[in-house]
Amino acid sequence: MLDKGIRPDNNACGALAVGLCDGGKVDLAYELVIGVISGRQFEDSTLVYNALICGFCSAGRIDKALAIMSFMRRNGCRPDLVSYNVLLNYFYCDEFMFEEAEKLLTKMEDGE
């Protein structure tokens, strides 16, 4: 799309990110989204960020998921309940990382 000069809107970018992440192609989804975001070709969308966060958590790459959450904040897009739930599910249910989950809950309560 981008090579042909077609700029995806939020819905198209969200659909591509969700589809690619569901298909296990998280790195490709990340490249697409970051390319579009860095070109400021669409508004920041929690749907797109959440798809990436979920995809990287599913792939066991929590460091990348947390980096996306940080990137999301820096770009003025506030994490929502879904953002936190995905990470908390990973910390509590998948990896039993209770201290990290508590830190995340504190951030969530503080509105960070």
UniProtKB/TrEMBL annotation:
<dbReference type="Pfam" id="PF13041">
    <property type="entry name" value="PPR_2"/>
</dbReference>
<dbReference type="InterPro" id="IPR002885">
    <property type="entry name" value="PPR_rpt"/>
</dbReference>
<keyword id="KW-0677">Repeat</keyword>
<dbReference type="InterPro" id="IPR050667">
    <property type="entry name" value="PPR-containing_protein"/>
</dbReference>
<protein>
    <recommendedName>
        <fullName>Pentatricopeptide repeat-containing protein</fullName>
    </recommendedName>
</protein>
<comment type="similarity">
    <text>Belongs to the PPR family. P subfamily.</text>
</comment>
<feature type="repeat" description="PPR">
    <location>
        <begin position="45"/>
        <end position="79"/>
    </location>
</feature>
<dbReference type="InterPro" id="IPR011990">
    <property type="entry name" value="TPR-like_helical_dom_sf"/>
</dbReference>
